[in-house]
Amino acid sequence: MGTVFFASYLIGLRDGLEAALVISILVAFLTQSSRRDRLRQVWAGVAAAVLASAAVGVLLTTVAGWLGSGVRMELFEAVTSLVAVALVTWMIFWMRRTARTLKGEITGRLETALSMGGWAVVTMAFFAVLREGVEMVLLVFAAAEGATDSAAPLLGMLSGIASAVALGWVVTTATMRINLGRFFTWTGALLILVAAGILKYGVHGLQSANVLPGGTRTAFDLSTTIDPTSWYATLLTGTINLTPRASVLEITAWLLFAVIMLGLFFRPSGTPRPAAAAVRAPAP
């Protein structure tokens, strides 16, 4: 349970905190501008986004159960894995690029929505939280593929969300100084490795479905020298999907993605890296 739980926990913590910061910015802006009467619309949008994200999770699980096993299931898992990798990569670099201006972007959209009416506020809050929720569900679903304990991914995600809510409350009430810039940097790097593992799983699925060639071309097979049940093998398999046996295309995809994305992620930019104050939610 531990490693799959940890991967799901990291996803829930990262995406949950991003959502918590967005919500705190919306609430603080309305409170400071004496528009508390619109808070109900914000919470309605948030609730709708949570329900929609849960519906996506139920849909994915239902489709997976209907497909059962075989080529169609391999293709479905491969496609969802690739979509999850694309989405999380975009979100990681989006947060890195816009962290310094996140508050201004969100409050600007909210000001526009306020001038359009209550439903516009609901819609704005809905889509602001929905992208985090859908990304979280897709990532956890993809990371959980092949897990032996079906409850571990859900429990890990919920635990991560609970931690994110607590951490978000600590930040917004200013009861503790937290360097969120550093937090998002290192969790972003860990998620890139998780995404590399999900990409490897997607390549494996496409090879199993005979969509990609090379399924029998093994890059290495250490299953006879490394105990797959050992703690380190279990840790690497459950978090970043480094298995004792992998095809040439699988490990090539893993290495290329991890090296290129980590290089781009840690590459110095022309503007200062996001500081703690840049992404810290305003105190109400």
From TrEMBL:
**One Pfam family, short name:** FTR1
Presence of the UniProt keyword Metal-binding in the record: no
Q: Which residues cross the membrane?
A: 6-30, 42-69, 75-93, 113-130, 150-171, 183-203, 246-266
Cellular location(s) = Membrane
Which protein family is named in the record?
Belongs to the oxidase-dependent Fe transporter (OFeT) (TC 9.A.10.1) family.
4Fe-4S keyword on record: no
Name-wise, this protein is Iron uptake transporter permease EfeU
Protein keywords: Membrane, Transmembrane, Transmembrane helix
InterPro entries reported for this sequence: FTR1/Fip1/EfeU
What NCBIfam families does the annotation carry? Answer: EfeU (NF041756)
Tell me which species this is from.
Answer: Dactylosporangium cerinum
Main localisation? membrane
What is its membrane topology? Multi-pass membrane protein
